[in-house]
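At this stage, I put together a protein sequence along with its fold in token form, as given directly below:
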Amino acid sequence: MTNTAWESLSNQAIGAAGIVYFLALLVLIAEWASLRQVAVAEASASTESSGDVALAVRTGDGGADAEARERRTAFLGRLGLMLTGIAAAVHFVALLGRGMAASPNRVPWGNMYEFTISGTFVVTLFFLVLMRKYALQWMAPLIVAFVVTTLMVGVIWLHADVAPLTEALNSYWLVIHVVSAVIATGAFTIGGLLSIVYLVKLRRGGDAGAAPGSRIPTLAVLDRTAYRIHAFAFPVWTFAVLITGPIWAHEAWSRYWNWDPKEVWAFITWVVYAAYLHARATAGWKGRNAAILACVGLATLWFNFIGINYFSTSSQHSYAGGEPTSQVVRQDAAPPGVDVLR
């Protein structure tokens, strides 16, 4: 296949993945609606069965209707997760095609569009891997909605044609640094979404105010799961920001630390998450305060991921923007022989 054919395949695959993700979201929303209907029916059955004369609503036509609703709900849940898995597989094909379209072939992390489609794939992959271990099936609509929204932003506003990597990016440190950063970003995103759900549930009455049919875990489970995921992501982010990043910067720009806006915000993110874990370990922070701090960390993480590329005019990482990486606009910020691109 030619490079043009690979790029076309990547564009078509990302469009197909977006469609399948959207179908999965519709199915998962239908599952939640059906689940609530089942819960309401069971609550009604419990009410009607109370008293001296029990009404056998779980037998006969009433019981058959309830069982049918339960089967429909289970089918929708399985179908939604299956569609999510299929969308992730197509998503991976889009990433593969993007890397194969470049000459020479490379990892698909050369600009903001490629970072975005890679990051959303990792979020989906993390969810599918952790789903059974942490019983996260209930999060499927939230994860898929996040991925669909981010992919739309990437395709509409961030898309860039495939171009060769700049000299600064053409290094094996790109793989080491970005893989660790993207893994941490995916885990932090899931942990942050758990913290957001915690705060929303707390505001709506906590465990006592849960809606009928809600599969959202208790506040204690949400808090504990968010902490475990953050505890996994933090060492990976540390490796990306404080170890591989400075080493790569020294190789590219002859300086370990340049006080570049993206470096500064990556460090701010590290400090926020370090404070989160430290507060939990030493001061016993749990619940609301910890969730708020986790949300602050998530905000700094995604501002660093996207915002710096559009609000900063001095960042040497501006080659991560949506424009083609072959457009040279700055030469004075890097040592001789290293092109820093917008």
Summary: Strands lie at 328-330, 340-341. The chain has two domains: 1-48+58-162, 164-342. The first helix runs from residue 3 to 48.
